[in-house]
Amino acid sequence: MGKKALKATDDTEANVDMSPMIDCCFLLLIFFVVNATAITVKKDKNVKMPTAVASDELKKANGLIVVNVFNPDNLKKDSGYPEGTLWATDDKKGFSDETQLEEYLKTRKEELEKKKDIKGQEFEKVQLYIRGDATAPYKYTNKVILAAGKNGITNIVFGALPTK
Questions:
Q1: ∠46-80-42 over CA atoms, to 5°?
Q2: With 90 as the cut, is the pLDDT of residue 146 above it?
Q3: Which DSSP letter does residue 45 get?
Q4: How do residues 23-73 score in pLDDT, each as one tens digit?
Q5: Residue (of 37, 156, 136, 153) closest to 88 by Cα position
Q6: Which of 141, 121, 119 is nearest to 132 (CA)?
Q7: Do 76 and 45 form a contact (C-beta atoms < 8 A)?
Q8: CA–CA separation, 131 vs 67, rounded Å?
Q9: How far apart are CA 154 and CA 147, in angstroms?
Q10: What are phi and psi of 76, to 5 degrees?
Q11: HSE (CB half, 13 Å, CA atoms) of 154?
Q12: Where does residue 135 rank: exposed (0-12), middle (13-18), buried (19+ CB within 10 A)?
């Protein structure tokens, strides 16, 4: 019995449909965008931010110490702060005494210097982010600046909204 040569008679071509792969890529992209954790600065509704022509958005919130400066005459009773509060942190801890503020800045700076950022690297510098109420007297902001200087915090960012 002789051997017959087998020949492939199937002339169909193999095509890869790209649309399911593109759909999968878009779904992954949306998943990562939605689940990305952005580090932002918490905003206090009791602070009415001033506007500035040359204001710019804060790019990095890593290594920030946030202090809100209030006008005690405009601070509402239902704000959640004790009466006479002049300064507050981003986690709603209020201060009316300069020594409390200085102690907070000192401990927060020490915490941030020990802490590392998301990539496991130490922060380049600790920054003080002052969010002052537009109607707050400058003397309260000046006291925050002096307290920062006493604790070796020299990089200060002032919060302002862009003019419309």
A1: 50
A2: yes
A3: T
A4: 999 999 998 888 776 656 667 777 777 777 877 777 666 778 888 898 888
A5: 136
A6: 141
A7: no
A8: 6
A9: 11
A10: -75, 155
A11: 3
A12: exposed
Among positive and negative, which fits the CA dihedral 31, 33, 39, 44? negative
Q: What is the pLDDT of residue 142?
A: 92
Global pTM? 0.67
- Look at residue 5 in the predicted model and tell me its pLDDT: 61
Tokens 């020490």 correspond to 110
What is the C-alpha separation between 52 and 132, in angstroms, rounded? 13
Rounded-to-integer distance, Cα 154 and Cα 114, Å = 18
Residue burial 88-112, b: 16+ Cβ < 10 Å; e: rest: bbbeeebbbebeebbebbbebbeeb
